[in-house]
Amino acid sequence: MTGFRARYGASPLHLLLVVCSFAVTAYAGVRLLQGDTVGIVVWFVGAALLHDLVFLPLYTVTDRLVQRLVRHRRRDGEGAGPVVAGGINYLRVPAFVALLLLLVWYPLILRRVPEFTRYTALPSGGFLGRWLLITATLFAASAVCLLAALWRHGRTAGGRPEGLPPPSPPPPGAPPAPPSAPAAPAAPPQAGPPPPAPSPPPAPSPPSPPPAPQEPEE
């Protein structure tokens, strides 16, 4: 078992699941191509090209614009508040799921299948409202998760000032710092008259005049 895991990189159960998934995919492909083979191939290639050439640049540019807008608002001080790592994902995930549902079910959401009611005996007018309800539920659940993340972030911060990093722990094995010596107590004030003021220093004596010069003898 250890040698198999070292060669394959995972357990035999993982290999079994991968083989089963490939078998199911091959069966679905064979059944799908039994009808209009050319139409299925054209649809598959067209969907891949449409995604890579249109949808991928579109939602990539939209994501970059949203991130730049959020950074600009925070830099200007309009969006001051706690920052959650990966906060943009709380907007990406519900938007991605809602757009994916729209892409898969857009013929029914936009009422492009007039034969739906005739074939299924079900009304075709409720798909748009259901999609809007699912989209609103996704964004509401994402907002609740964001509020929970902000609450956890506030508790983890522990009331530290914003922008101040947490104190680094001491290195392992380092002895604890010795406690500082207590300050000496101040001397109590003594009762009695105040001490006399110090006497001023004596004034300096004036300097003696210089001796008169003597006249030379003839």
UniProtKB/TrEMBL annotation:
Region (Disordered): 158-218
The UniProt record lists the keyword Transmembrane helix: yes
Segments passing through the bilayer: 38-62, 83-108, 128-151
Comp. bias regions, Pro residues: 163-218
Keywords per UniProt: Membrane, Transmembrane, Transmembrane helix
Keyword field contains Transmembrane helix: yes
Protein name: Uncharacterized protein
Organism placement in taxonomy: Bacteria, Bacillati, Actinomycetota, Actinomycetes, Kitasatosporales
